[in-house]
Design a protein that fits this description.
Layout (H helix, E strand, L loop, with lengths): L1 E2 L21 H7 L4 H24 L6 H13 L1 H9 L7 H15 L3 H13 L21 H7 L3 H15 L5 H6 L5 H25 L3 H6 L2 H4 L2 H8 L12 H4 L7 H6 L6 H6 L8 H8 L10 H15 L19 E4 L7 E4 L4
Antiparallel strand pairs: 1-3, 2-3
């Protein structure tokens, strides 16, 4: 099958164009089943940790322990981003009202508005690590060659904040940016702007509280943890695709799965099973380990922890200093890079080619 993704009138890329590992219908039905109880346990556990570490930081005010206490609090708080990611898919809870209600809380914590976040992420799943198509992946974390200044500031969520908070402000005034128009359908604009006004009002309310109390503490505890605590979640998030092959319609070449200890896996909402998540995005977070076991024979080996993944990423960065096109090719069973690929040549539009080898 061959598709020219850059020319008008040609079929766009869809999720059906991507390779999927064989999975029997019974297992697929089991792993796509949502569970309110499991999702509530994860959400409740995360919020309990946020409250407990926040109380610890509060008790440390006025002492030298405030710095490590706030760092611990912020680190836990920032993992709300992992839950927000799952909520974009509307898969944590079986009850839609729970998905919607919890998403409000988590969006406040993560500087996001629900509708823009959901549609931007849909583009990421449709064009994962594709750079030679129009449109391209809207959520590429690290481009080639890497911009080390941006990479460093990402650990404080600087560009994330400028992008998402900037959109919240613009959308609150009914101004739809070109970037937003590229991913959000017009029918969603009104609800997106309404949501943005609510979230902006909440943030301004925290600022007013700080002014009235003549204290920075409301801002430090409610608005800034996503920045000063971002480091560990960012270390995990960057492993998802960085350094792997671009322009392949096979998530096994462009996405990493890594094994983590139970604490990190809990905080990260099982998103370390990232190949599986991209291949079957309707599978809830809690079923991803079971999905892994079901299709493992058709997947590359998982990385043994965060250090193993980052060891490879650092090597990629080193190689890209002299060769910006350098990428890692995972060991995919029975496949070689290029079996599913996007190719482009000088003076020609990007062309999408998928081998009939499924």
């Amino acid at each position: 099958m061959s598709v020219n993704a850059a020319q008008p009138g040609n079929p766009p890329i869809t999720m059906d164009d991507w390779y999927k590992c064989p999975l029997d219908r019974k297992t697929l039905k089991e792993v796509t089943r949502r569970n309110d109880h499991v999702a509530l346990a994860y959400f409740g556990g995360l919020m309990a940790l946020v409250i407990a570490t926040g109380a610890l930081a509060w008790c440390a005010l006025g002492t030298l322990w405030i710095v490590p206490a706030l760092l611990l609090y912020g680190t836990i708080y920032a993992f709300a981003e992992a839950m927000e990611h799952e909520l974009r898919h509307r898969t944590p809870f079986r009850s839609e009202w729970l998905n919607a209600s919890v998403h409000w809380v988590i969006c406040f914590m993560t500087w996001r508005e629900q509708i823009y976040s959901r549609w931007s992420h849909a583009q990421h799943h449709t064009y994962t690590h594709l750079t030679a198509t129009v449109p391209a992946d809207a959520e590429l974390a690290v481009k080639r060659p890497p911009n080390y200044f941006k990479l460093a500031t990402d650990f404080l969520r600087v560009s994330h904040g400028i992008h998402h908070l900037g959109n919240i402000v613009l959308h609150s005034f009914g101004i739809i940016s070109m970037g937003t128009k590229a991913v959000v359908p017009p029918v969603e604009y009104r609800a997106m702007c309404r949501n943005s006004r609510v979230i902006l009002a909440l943030y301004l309310g925290v600022g007013a509280w700080a002014i009235a109390a003549q204290s920075w503490l409301p801002v430090v505890f409610l608005l800034l943890p996503r920045s000063y605590g971002a480091w560990l979640h960012e270390l995990l998030a960057i492993t998802q695709h960085t350094g792997l092959r671009e322009n392949e319609l096979d998530h096994r070449f462009s996405t990493r799965t890594l094994y983590l200890n139970p604490v990190l896996q809990f905080l990260y909402w099982n998103m370390n099973y990232h190949v599986e998540h991209h291949m079957f995005p309707n599978v809830p977070f809690h079923a991803l380990p079971k999905l892994r076991r079901a299709i493992e024979q058709d997947l590359p080996p998982a990385y043994e922890g965060l250090f193993a993944a980052w060891g490879e990423i650092v090597q990629v960065f080193r190689m890209q200093r002299s060769d910006p096109d350098y990428m890692i090719t995972p060991a995919v069973p029975g496949k070689t890079a290029g079996d599913a690929r996007v190719v482009s040549s000088a003076g020609e539009d990007a062309a999408l080619s998928v081998a009939e080898s499924r």
